[in-house]
Amino acid sequence: MRFVASYVAFLIAFGVCDAVWLTQMGSRLYRPALGDILLDAPRLAPAALFYFGFSLAVVYFAVMPAVREGNASSALVNGALIGLLAYATYDLTNYATLRAWTLTITLADLAYGTIAVGICSWLAYVAATRLASWGWI
């Protein structure tokens, strides 16, 4: 049950963070550099596959080990590392291969991914441990 609680908590927290980030930064960061290659609206099926799959990986590799250890900082640090690696895979590949992709986008995304995934992993840890301490899971 802790896995499910952690997964739901991470999914909600990361979904909110990403919605805010993309809403605020889309017109400021991405649209000016990438222009016409951006869709007017995202394709929902691939986005859902990413969010559900990425959340599973973060909970499995960062949150649950921290829950087993009883170590909130482990969830934060390991989540941040996973975020950095995931965002680096995407952004550095784009920066290496796409003419319009900028260093500014790359650095902003790396910082965002590291911070957001770290914090959301910590929040998922807190949710799972609190719910367990209250006897709800």
UniProtKB/TrEMBL annotation:
Keywords from the named record: Membrane, Transmembrane, Transmembrane helix
Membrane-spanning ranges: 43-63, 70-90, 110-128
Cited InterPro entries: DUF2177_membr
Name of the protein in its database record: Putative membrane protein
Species in which this protein is naturally found: Enterovirga rhinocerotis
Upper taxonomic lineage: Bacteria, Pseudomonadati, Pseudomonadota, Alphaproteobacteria, Hyphomicrobiales
